[in-house]
Amino acid sequence: MSTIPEIQQIESRILSLGNSVRSEVLAYSQDGDSKLPIYKITFGSEDPQAPVLGIVGGVHGLERIGAQVTVAMMNSFSELVRWDRQLQRTLQDVRVFFIPTVNPIGILRKTRCNPRGVDLMRNAPVDADKPARWLGGHRYSNKLPWYRGKENEPMEVESLALIKGVQKEIASSRLAITLDCHSGFGLQDRLWFPYAKTQKPFPELGLVHSFKNLLDQTYPHHFYKVEPQAGTYTTHGDLWDYLYLQHNGVAQGKQYLPLCLEMGSWMWVKKHPSQLFRADGPFNPLIGHRHQRTLRRHNTLLELMIRAVSNPEAWATLTSEQKLHHEEKAQELWYAGT
Prior knowledge:
Blueprint: H1 5-17, E1 22-31, E2 34-44, E3 52-57, H2 64-83, H3 85-90, E4 95-99, H4 104-109, H5 157-170, E5 175-183, E6 189-193, H6 205-218, E7 224-228, H7 239-250, E8 255-263, H8 266-271, H9 288-297, H10 299-310, H11 320-334
Parallel strand pairs: 3-4, 3-5, 5-8, 6-7
Antiparallel strand pairs: 1-2, 2-4, 6-8
Helix pairs in contact: 1-2, 2-9, 6-11
């Protein structure tokens, strides 16, 4: 049966880790004779209220580098778990999970969509205020990119698997961060936060600005641009909008920050324009040394996020005055023109 290297790496890692990791198949993605698992791998505390970090990749199969970065992070993290006593102590109080290949058939077929032609990141029952034309999602035909699926139909198997996997981990958590790894926009790596559905300010502005401040102060020479996704374009059906809204509706007082890493793939194309003639060329680093550099490029961000969920008093436990200060700074930085 067909498979992909990312799943082979995940299964090999699960076997090597034994009882030090919890693994499950959230669902299977299927297209004809091809049937591939969607794995979730979880480390650390089983306390439902423990702080949580989740890393996700492979939502868009054509952006294979997102799945590869997630697998690389998981591999490095799991090696540290073997020998790093400080990390072992941290994981007594913190939970870290990985869902590296949300859309494995898309990765196998080199398509953005899932086997039914649905763009998973347009599939949630969330309607945008003023979505970008076409790019923002539509229901005309699965022959066209950015197709949302038919109205009033259940979400796709892969979408539901991601939602189920994330909700299980964050439902009762005091503090949760998720990072969804994508590529394909711009010359700079971006960290996008919700909303995708509207240009109105994200309710957790104080929290996200405080996180940005933590990143800037800890690593002042970092290369990420932190910004609301809707500042670039707005879309229907964003899964992270949906997860945030569902979580916010039932978990009052529990903080959740969904982030999207949008790797700037134009950097790779600029240095190797012939990539444009390959289906996956605009979205992935195809030259060996650039690919290797990308796989190790985000380890510092992973380290920061682990420490951030482990030490909420440094940035997430805000007084009323601190929250107001960060909200005002965020308004000036991201929403001054709205």
